[in-house]
Amino acid sequence: MGRYQPYGKNVQAEDKDEFHPIWRGVGCILMVVVPLLAFGLTLLGLQNLNIQVPRQFIVPLSWPGWQYFPPFMRTQNILVILMGTLALTVLIGGLLTFITFVIYKFFGPSRYGPTDMPPIQRQIKKRYKPNR
């Protein structure tokens, strides 16, 4: 036993920064739901908004593997659908992150704990004016 080690059992402090296990499940569900939502919104946008697709993004259906794709993927606009899905996934993820930030800012724990020192208040000094 060393000089600075306790004589009792090895008691380790609990890690207070660990998240509740339910948040792992919520994150897993969001990793599946957000891209599916973005994919659906992209398909609805292409059908309802009548967007003109440039010729460079049209993929010919002559590739032999096209017959194994699901019917909604057998389209010449597959590159536009994938790019739209990626863009909407990033936008929806950013929006959810911003909403989480705002909720945490208003309802989260205080910035300073019980052992923290209060922030330093700067004192405003008056400017010296000589008498004449």
So what's the overall shape?
Answer: elongated
Sheet of most strands: none
Helix content: 40-55%
Report the structural category: mainly alpha
Alpha carbon gyration radius: 29 Å
Strand percentage lies at: under 5%
Q: What is the residue-mean pLDDT, rounded to a whole number?
A: 81
What is the overall number of helices?
A: 2
Describe the model.
Helix content is 43%, strand content 0%. The protein is mainly α and 132 residues long. α1 packs across α2.
Distinctive features:
mainly alpha; 132 residues
In short:
Helix content is 43%, strand content 0%.
Layout of helices and strands:
Layout: H1 22-48, H2 78-107
Helix pairs in contact: 1-2
